[in-house]
Amino acid sequence: MLMTNFLQKRKSVRDFKNDNVPRDVLENIKLLIQEIDSEDGVGLSLYENGKIVYEGLKGKAGYSGVMIEAPHYISLDIKDNSPLNILTGGYLLEKLNTKIVDLNLDTCWITVDQVDHDTKKSIFGENGVGIDFLIALGYGQKKKFFDPEVSSSRLPVDEIVFQDTLGNPISMETLENYGIFDVFSSARYAPSHMNLQPWRFVLNGSKIDAYMVKSEDDNRSFVDMGVILFYIEEMLKSIGTEKKWTIDLKDAGKHYYIGEISL
Predict the structure, then answer these.
(1) Which InterPro entries does the record cross-reference, listed alphabetically (predicted)?
(2) Span 21-35, pLDDT tens digits
(3) What's this model's pTM, rounded to 2 decimal places?
């Protein structure tokens, strides 16, 4: 499936069956983790006994205080909580997430950054205090795509993409001429905390600059930026652009400048 189509149909499942994922599939996921987990400041781990994770976090994490119960979880351990590591963590965990979905499994992101250190240690071990995000995985009770109401709440393309400088309007014709209108139209469906969509992009000649809106919760936004950078890279491949983001984090007033990618 093209990544543009994947994003538009992307779903997050919160109700999982009790069925364990078959052993061979779990072993495949472990191999995927080994392939992806190549950054010093970030660690990914599979917790096969989901009951331990669920019981430990029940009442302390989840959605509106309700923990997501799943047969298995994957943790994201960010070593020193630096913006670059947080950004990288979001990129790698969503990259892994898409590969897990390709195995016909369902997933759901869970934020655990408000959970106390003692609880994390009791669940994940002495070195688990840096785990702020999880992916629950298994087989969903039912599959549900984004409904029109959720989709319509997302920012339009002309509020996330600009020309030359932030705030300068860009025409849809210009995006079409560069062959990237579908990329940014689909990017609106990428997940973000509270659906804040903190990303902003500037088409600057033959490159795209990425920015992040500052907020009271920058750490979660940096994770969201890692997610969207992954998807932009993947979607650009569909138009023949096999490029990677060059990251150059710096302050830019009401935004953080994240980096650039060539077209």
Answers:
(1) TM1586_NiRdase (IPR029478)
(2) 999 999 999 999 999
(3) 0.91
